[in-house]
Amino acid sequence: MVLVFAATTAFALGQVQWQKNSPQRVGGQAIIMWNALPGALKYSISRTDMLTNKTVSWETQSLYYVDLRAESGKAYKYLITALGADGRPLGVSESRLLEAFKPLEPPRWGGSYQEGGRLYLVWDGDPRAKFHNLYRIDQGSKEASKIASVQTGKYVDSNILPRAKYTYYIRSVDRDGKESESSNYLDAEVETWEGAPAVGVVAKRYVNAVGMIVGQANSLFSEPTDMVFRRGKLFVTDMGSRAIQEFTPEGALVRRIGVKPPNYPKEWGIPWGMDSDIEGKVFAVTYLKTPYVRIFDRNGKMILDLEVFKPRELKDYPLVPQAMDVLLDGNGGFWVSEFSYGQLIHYDERGTEILRVGTPKFLEEGEPFKTPTFLARQPKTGDIWVSESLQGRIYRITQEGEIIGFMDNRDSELGVLIMPKDIAPGKEGELLVIDGMLGSLQSFDEKGNLVAVYYTPELEYLELPSIVAVAYDPTTGDIYVSSKIESAIFRLQLIQ
């Protein structure tokens, strides 16, 4: 008997690794992300409908895929197969289930109590909720205003008045930003307390606008974006010169600093957000269409060229970070608002990252920022204000990076915020806020209470063309605003 052994070749498939939190729902679509497998030239994504058992497939050369037809009410199972040059499979992932969306249950009140000038609210919510929106109806009003978005089931309302009556309700918010039905109403009557403030009155401040249309006289000045007032001079970033322009209070050009150095090897970009130390010795600028933040000395020499990196959780995501504004922290470091992933980042004086505030918006639990833009620092407390243009909010953050509230005045008759743009410290620690949609200017105190609204004489609005940026001269009390459309700067002088 002759034994014959046949030679065989076994081929083991590799393992395609999913990225963390993938797949995930974003509204009526699903984002699918995975890591590269060596040797693979393309990938096949298969999706199985868990109700009908029907499977469909797609191919891509990228490491992510957006399923535009992932209906929210259906559950799906996804599988990734890595393919070689000849189309044969080189590896396969484990299958992953994307659960069907189920509406959140409305929150349930646990009660409220008052201590001094603080009203404590507690509730229970659906455990699937990513955060909760808290609404309040003030005494004498028929409309509710959203006063907070919080992750935990408690909130302290310190923006209350003695002997006032308030009605609250809550809605839970899922990972796609959809709200649940409202909770029951909770009525609260505030008792007076020692040191309670008198009921405030919003001031109407009338100003004369003195035009400084420097764009017409200087071809290198166009579309001014951000401004600061330092050492008796106004510093402006603009698209024309792609630098910082220094002006006298009357609008005369003094010089340009932060100009692109000769033979600079990288994309320079368009200067956008800017800040300076109180003495005007250091200037920090962000640049559109790049991930860079650059810091210059008083003579315009670049002393730091910092690249803002992607969040670690999304290091393989295709979007390039976009730094929007920069804020010096008073201790040598600086904060940067990052638009692509929706975060606030703190750096030390060497440009080393210290911390990030906010979960990247492409992650399942991404919150609270979606479109962070301009920054300002409250002189009294050191707290940081962040303008969220598309959300119509301005968030308040401590120096340690804790989000402690926001202003959202969409429903208020005075000081309404639809699309807040630039923000800057004003008189006596007030916060000046430009609304780009309305072309309005208003002031808030350090707690976010509306203090004043600015008007053109004999009108009930501020008659200026599409203003976007604001700066304050503490010596004269004059306010400077810029218009990108008109390439103009206006000096606002208060009418006593």
Q: What does this entry look like structurally?
A:
With 496 residues, the protein is mainly β. It has 1 helix and 40 strands. It has an 8-stranded mixed β-sheet. The longest helix is centred in the middle third of the chain and has 4 residues, at 214-217. The N and C termini lie far apart (117 Å). 39% of the residues are buried.
Key structural traits:
mainly beta; eight-stranded mixed beta sheet; 496 residues; six-stranded mixed beta sheet
Mean pLDDT: 88
Number of strands: 40
| Gross morphology | globular
| Radius of gyration over C-alpha positions, nearest whole angstrom | 27 Å
Low-confidence stretches: 1-10
Strand content: over 45%
Distance between the termini: 117 Å
Q: Going across the major beta sheet, what is the strand order?
A: 34-35-36-37-17-40-39-38
Largest sheet: 8 strands, mixed
Helix count, DSSP H or I runs of 4 or more residues: 1
